[in-house]
Amino acid sequence: MKDSDSIPETPPKTNGSHRYANSARFIIKAVCKFISMLGGMYLLLGDATSVAVKGLLISDQQIGRSSLFAQMVRVGVRAIPIVFLVQMAIGMIVPLQIFPKLDEFGQAEQIATINAISGFREFGPLMTAVVLCGFAGASIAAELGTMVTAEEIEALEASALNPVRFLVLPRLLATIIMTVMLTVIADVVIIASGMLTAYKLGIDPDIYIQLTFEAVGIRGFATGLIKAAVFGLLIGLIACFLGLAVKPWQGSEGVGHATTNTVVYCIVAIIVADAVFTLIFYSYGLFN
Amino acid sequence: MPENTHKNPVIEIHQLVKNFGSQRVLDGIELNVYPGEIMVVMGGSGCGKSTLLRLLIGLLTPDKGSIRLFGKEITTLSQKELNEIRKQFGILFQSGALFNSLTVGENVSLLLKEHTNLDEATIEIMVKIKLELVGLRKHADKMPAQLSGGMKKRAGLARAIALDPKILFYDEPGAGLDPVTSAEVDQLIIDLTKKLCVTSVVVTHEMDSAFTIADRMCMLDQGRILKIGSRQEFEALRDSDPKKLHSQKDKLIHQFLRGDAQGPITERKISRDYEDDLLMVNVKNEKQ
Is residue B269 situated within a structural domain? Predict the structure, then answer.
């Protein structure tokens, strides 16, 4: 039961080589922790995949539809108003910021193009995922962490029930499905909000719609949804992993720690993943 | 139960060693439990009794030694084989460890649904039987959060006996309960052991309940077994005059059984550096 989180003890002398040795040790420890976390999440994903495949192939190993549905409601439905609000603001901010410059060039109607591209490919999936970090990620981590401290996970294992099948997989699927579905809603809201803003700026809605469809075809829409699915997977995976990584004796402090870390790690992971995606799409010319 | 000793033991523990980091928690445990008996494992807080229980149910793996359940070595089993063994025993956790998202009835029926091929109607009857055994049949539709501590324990017991186990493990069955409820749970343990012909291992530090339910008892201290004997032997030891006891072991058990504030256990805890600690500054100065 060695606490791997503990920071190495500060040596009595803080001058000279001790201090460097200490910070080096701290960095090495942090890197090791990061790598072990990645490894742990990879294994968890592997377990979840194998359970999912078994669930599809073997009839008595199915995942409970009711628990999946319950998780989807919990993850997604409550987040709809927030996603709506956030994306409405995004759909207004982007056109207003870019309008004066475009107007200078006499290209005012191009705010439709810009709003469509930024909305469908970036802000739709990205901001939805950020909202879900709080809604889904934090609550999943807190729930699983509490279950660990209440011996529920041990009870599952001791009853020969696989926690990955019963707890992780439904949550993972729910976050993926709901991130994608909420992104669809987000896309619609962004375009509607942008159109309203453009109308106020004197651009004809018909032209706006036409330019939107020209800017983003089915491909742009699809890349946004693929991104959303990956973001959802990241949120679910990080939240489940950190929640289950709480140790029974850490109690409420461990749960709080896991919840905070989940939100931070999720946001970082999503933005890094977004950058990687954009880079790949750009270099392979998948953008157009 | 001496008449049982000619039978093959259900649980055989041999030279069991478990370390947490550099700390040795269990050191060379030797223990046999025979069919149909209630074995009570006693010991102070932190003596390793909960660890022993977790090793027995395969939640932890030992560093050395062997554990045989039903004659099968469980320390080297694969997850799948271990799960098969786990279906043959039930565990009552300290907090009950009910699945909080399911009702009391669903908590019991989950195991039956997952591990048997029984149809819905049969499972429903089975759940009613199990709940009636612990006196909770009328509370089947309640959520665990709506139950009192004693009811949670009883519901946990109903879940533990869901699959008609051959061994029942109890982790501190009386912890956090008032005396009457605790006595009720004790009576329930005795009744169930008789009615279902199971072998029980009870981990506790509450002497009243230990002497009520035990057939044989085992005293654990600092990771070692001090004494294994019948309840009568322990009762005799408890009621004997401490001045007539010669070995340190017997004196220690005597103190524990009677719950005396003075004796070898207390002496061990008294720190001798109190004065030094109070005069911390002086000590530090001397060291430098």
Answer: yes
User: Is B175 inside a domain boundary?
Assistant: no
Q: Tell which phi-psi region holds residue B175, choosing left (phi > 0), alpha (psi between -120 and 50) or beta.
A: beta
Domain range annotation of chain A: 1-61, 63-283
List, for residues B210-243, the tens digit of each pLDDT value: 888 888 888 888 888 888 888 888 888 888 777 7
Residue A89 banded pLDDT, cuts 50, 70, 90: very high
Would residue B207 count as lying in a domain? no
Position B1 pLDDT exceeds 50: no
Radius of gyration of chain A (CA): 23
Among the residue ranges A48-57, B60-69, B237-246, the one predicted with the least confidence is: B237-246
- What's chain B's Rg over C-alpha atoms? 21
Residue B225, classed as helix, strand or coil, is strand
The three-state secondary structure class of B116 is: coil
What b/e readout covers B115-125, taking b as 16+ CB neighbours within 10 angstroms? Answer: beeeeeeebee
CA distance B54 to A41: 25
Q: Which of B34, B77, B61, B50 is nearest to B166 (CA)?
A: B34
Q: Which residues of A touch B114 (CB under 8 A)?
A: 160-161
Domain total for chain B? Answer: 1
Instruction: List pLDDT tens digits, range B86-107.
Output: 888 888 888 878 888 888 888 8
Write out chain B residues lying below 8 Å of A62, CB-based: none
Say if CB B182 and CB B30 are below 8 A apart. no
Q: What's the farthest any 2 CA atoms get from each other in chain B?
A: 78
What is the interface pTM, i.e. ipTM, of the complex? 0.78
Contact A2 B94 (CB under 8 A): no
B252 inside domain: yes
Burial A68-79 (b: 16+ CB within 10 A, else e): beebbebbbeeb
- Across the interface, whether the CB atoms of B99 and A152 are under 8 A apart is answered yes
